[in-house]
Amino acid sequence: MLNYKIRVYYEDTDAQGVVYYANYLRFFERARTEFLRNAGYEQKKLMKEGLIFVVRNVEMSLLKPAHLDDELSVNTELLKLGRVSFDFKQEIIFASNIITTAIIQCGCLDSNKFTPSPLPEYLHNGMKKLI
Questions:
Q1: Where are the beta strands (DSSP E) in 63-96?
Q2: Which residue, 4, 6, 61, 85, has fewest beta-carbon neighbours within 10 Å?
């Protein structure tokens, strides 16, 4: 599991100073990117190899709001790893309380054809160590 810290800025909030719901997806994205970086994932390298990662499904529960200036912890863990697809469990925590949870299903595509493509062996092996 990776714990990623993020601060809520003004741009993340609505007129009431509460995090706008869609911005939780951005927080999750940043944390997943850092999680995958630990497995050897480099976006530029993967793009040069003609591969991209896509989100194919999101299940998110908003339990409590986050506010301007809150420091949040985003926990990320790999739930499932296949040859082409991989699923994450993520949660956002503030003051020891889980405020948002998500299951995010991702896949690897050929960037030219937009068809499923196996993960490169080096990355699959790196991700396998994090499960």
A1: 71-81, 85-94
A2: 61
